Prior knowledge:
alpha/beta, six-stranded mixed beta sheet
Amino acid sequence: MSPTPAATVRLxxxxxxxxxxxxRTSLAGVCLPNPTPSRDPDRVLAGALDAPVDGLxxxxxxxxxxxxxxxxxxxxxxxxxxxxxxxxRSRLAGRSPQLIVATGTxxxxxxxxxxxxxxxxxxxxxxxxxxxDSERAGDLVKAGRTSRxxxxxxxxxxxxxxxxxxxxxxxxxxxxxxxxGRKGIMPGLAGRRAIELNHRFALDPxxxxxxxxxxxxxxxxxxxxxxxxxxxxxxxxxxxxxxxDLYAAAAGGLSASFLSAAGMAREVFAVNVPAPxxxxxxxxxxxxxxxxxxxxxxxxxGRLALRPGGLMIAVSACRDGLGPSHYLxxxxxxxxxEDVLTLASRAYSxxxxxxxxxxxxxxxxxxxxxxGLPEEVMTRAFFTPQPDIQTALDRALDRYGSEAxxxxxxSGSLTVPVxxxxxxxGSV
Length: 428
């Protein structure tokens, strides 16, 4: 009997590409974000501002206002902020801009990060720049309560500004549907308690990648922004391709520009998968492979293609360790995955949704990981540690047999598998 032909797959790990092999009959596919044509980034941005999606031009929105607050992302986002500022500032017609960094609960950006974010604009806009601090009570202004019970407080600058322009980038988000748009204000400029209350909706099964229509987390964000800015805000939203280059952009009212960009982001990052598989190998590609906290995104996207009882193998070097680790408390306190859900429902704190998502994968199948973290750390977090990718794959095939189907996501943090069955959470 002739040997089964082998297939090889390359996955990123710790700054290198690792080649692994498996029987060709077991290879269900290798999913990457969809290829897109190369485009001139300056033409893309100029075209978006010249043809706003809802007909609202930036000059029309600004009107007679003499000052404008420009909201920018921090260094954890891939937004091409400096290039976007090039195009925006040429249209401000003598108005005085002020920058505020939408940090959410992140730390303030360091000087080197600001230089990378703002480029040449740091010299004249840097001195008056505001870095939002969600825990600095003196900066916050209450803005009411959403219909879903989120008590709101925002940085006073976004409440009091004559006009607000939000610069963002749109890509899949594992519980808000997509990044960008409204996220520049909520959670970007919100108080910590408001962020915590909004993020509790991440526990809802409708809060998932690519989903907006019935997503309670997204809908609460949208309502919160309307309450913070009753007169509205303007949005310029970029969409990057799988190489991180600018592919598309949308300008207009904050919600309209976001929804348009989300549609274009879906074209890039949503990848059709014909059927759920036995094993998913999902790798966190750089720079999202720094810690366990960031690895979560690769797990969340990979699980969408996994059949009940299947096996998820998460791959991330985690060079910087755990990252923000507060969410591990329920995992450490629980004896079973089901206990995590009970603990989080009794006393939700910011970040607990990450623990719940890990527990859900474990409840519906199994969860292995190839990382640079100590085995005991991974075991306490409900992952079964594996020494390397090839060994993990071989063990998975031993478990599920020669008929096993394996799907690979070399860029699992950005690739969202979409199944044809609308009844499954991976289908939207």
